[in-house]
Structures are given as structure tokens and as C-alpha cells.
């Protein structure tokens, strides 16, 4: 197999290689610390020639693309030696021409030379490595040196935490601390165990009176619009809220989903100009959560008459216009940092009626998801912080496995 093409900012360069990060889904067998050379048993690819690139580019813009052809269909580990001297770069391997990577995108910030890994369970015949600018706080300047790229056969490796999660019936404060890798995090209030129940999508569907089937989509390909939407639709159809609140509108997919599956009026909060970096750039690169894009989907569906759009920072929004227990259901899917999720949850608790439902999106306690997804890290950290108190407020707090959804039913007064 050869790396046929490499382009950096549109300029063709000699063949080279790069990429990053550590995961736990697969591990090399036949490597075990030995330094293999081209042609050694078990070596699939060895590209000793590297490259360096520097310049300025916009947030999320591609810096380099490397074509990878004729990969075997069996699991592989890519090992890359790379030094990022300035900027923050994202690295991923995709099917050529496909928009989604076959794993969580990994990130490397400025620092010393590192050897990092990307694992692929089922590579395709035409793949490519992509490196892009993911520096939310910088000015777009980058400099990276890629020293080498190698690929090795791999075999499935399941960590004990991942294996335990498959059969778990409950999640505790200690479990979330282990997923976060920070056992010293102190949750608020007294410790309580087994505060979150774990149920399958099928079981949750039975509760809602509809047929649901667990998605087999890997977490790194997971999309709310495709994979979480059926679960949310079932909940709204079952609960039939009349007054629903959302933290985080974006283009209004979640709002539209609630409106189409209930008779609710929806109040939905979004930053008027969307989430911004310290440099003023859109966090999402294309301003899809700002200005006229806010709520576009529910407006296009002709559902605006049942929506009250609130343009505000939820950290500053008090909700004082609503009485305690005003809402039948609340979706928390705005900012994903721990402090914002904690803030939104505390406000939601006051506004949610007894017997009402609170939903947290981007909650997934699978260690691989937590380790590789910054939004999931923030939500998991917030739930860990709040969990003892949540267990006292909600009589039924469940994570649907697999999903990025945590659902709580508030205790009756």
C-alpha cells in the first residue's frame, strides 16, 4: 500500500504521513515495543518520510490530506510521530469523499513530539487522513512536523470499564469519576450510589408505548438527528407535554421534533450570535447557531406560531417570567461546559413540574465517548457534580444504552 498524494493548503507535496491519538478499542499484536522496519511481519505501512507545514487558515479548514489506498479490511492501528509547534490540530481518517471519520476526531495542541494512535475497526479500500485547524482560541496560525506514519494489524481489546458497562444496570458517582479519569472530583452533597439506571432503547420504548430498536451506530458516527431522535420522539409522544423548554436551539431540530410529536408550545433559548471563541469566531465554523440560522428548521416547517424564541445567555437568563413548575418537559442541550450544564440544570429543576421530564443531551458514560468528545466530557462532569442531588429530586433517572440521552422524571410533590 502506498500513500499516493499529499496536499497541504492545496499544494502537492512528496508522500509523507501524519496523525494522532490514543484509544482503547484496539491494540497492536506483534508490535510489543519492537521497532519494525518495512517488510517485517505484521507491518502494513511504513512511511518514514515525513513533512512539515505552517501557515494561517480558518477554523475547521483542512491543512493536509493523505490518500490511503488498498488497506486491508481487518482492524488496523495507525501510529504517528508528530510535533505541533503552534496551534491546535484535529486528525481523522475518513472514507474518501465521506464527511464523517471512522472514529472520534482527535486533537493535538502545541507541545513536544508525541507518538499517538488512531484505531480503525474496518478500514475501506479508499481512505484518507485529514488534518485540520481546530484551534478555537487561536488566530489560525499553525506549524506541524510529522515525522513518520506506520500502520499495524490490530485485534479487539475491550477495557474492563467498557465490558462492565454492557451489563451494567446502574451507574454511580464513582463510575462517572472513573470515566472522567479524575477520582478526586468531589460531587456536591453526600455520596449516593446507583443513582442512574441503565436501560435499553427497547425497554425505554416499552415504557413509552412504542417500538424502539437499539441503534448499532458506533458512538463516533452517532448523530442526534438519526440516532437519538427516535428516542426523543417516543418520549414526547408518550408524555405529551403542553409546555416545553429547551436550552439550546441551534437550527431548531429538537424544537421541531417536540412540536411534531406533541401539542406543546415550546420556549427555546439560544445565544443571539451563537457560541463564539475568545477571538470572536463561531465555535461551529459556519454560524449555524447564530442570527437567522437560529430556529430555521421549525420556521421552514411552518411551526413558528407554537414557538417562543428566547435570545439570551442562559448563564444570565433568570427565567423569572415563569412560575415554579411551569414546564412539563425540559431539554438541556445548550452550552456543554460543566458550568453551563450545571447552571441550566439548576434552573430547569425550579421550572420543571412534579412528574415532569428533564432530558440531558450529550450524556454518554461509555469511557471511549467521554475520553474523545469534549461536549460529552462537560456534560458527564456536570452530572457527576450534581448526581447526589439529582437522585433526591428525580425518582426515575435513566441512561438509555446506547444513546447520548439521560432522562429524569421529577418526583411528585
What this model shows, in words?
- With 413 residues, the protein is of the alpha+beta class.
- It is 23% helix and 33% strand.
- The protein contains nine helices and 21 strands.
- The protein has helices at residues 160-167, 173-180, 201-208, 224-239, 253-260, 296-300, 338-351, 367-372, 374-393, and strands at 3-8, 11-12, 26-28, 45-47, 51-56, 62-69, 76-86, 88-95, 106-109, 114-120, 126-133, 141-156, 170-171, 196-200, 243-247, 265-270, 307-311, 327-332, 352-361, 394-401, 405-410.
- It has a nine-stranded mixed sheet with strand order 13-14-20-21-19-18-15-16-17, with helices on both faces. The protein has a six-stranded antiparallel sheet with strand order 2-1-6-11-8-9, with no helix packed on it. Strands 3, 4, 5, 7, 10 and 12 form a six-stranded antiparallel sheet that branches.
- A hairpin with a 3-residue loop joins strand 20 (394-401) and strand 21.
- The longest helix is centred in the C-terminal third of the chain and has 20 residues, at 374-393.
- The radius of gyration is 23 Å and the shape is globular.
- The termini are far apart.
- Residues 1-43 and 188-193 have low confidence and may be disordered.
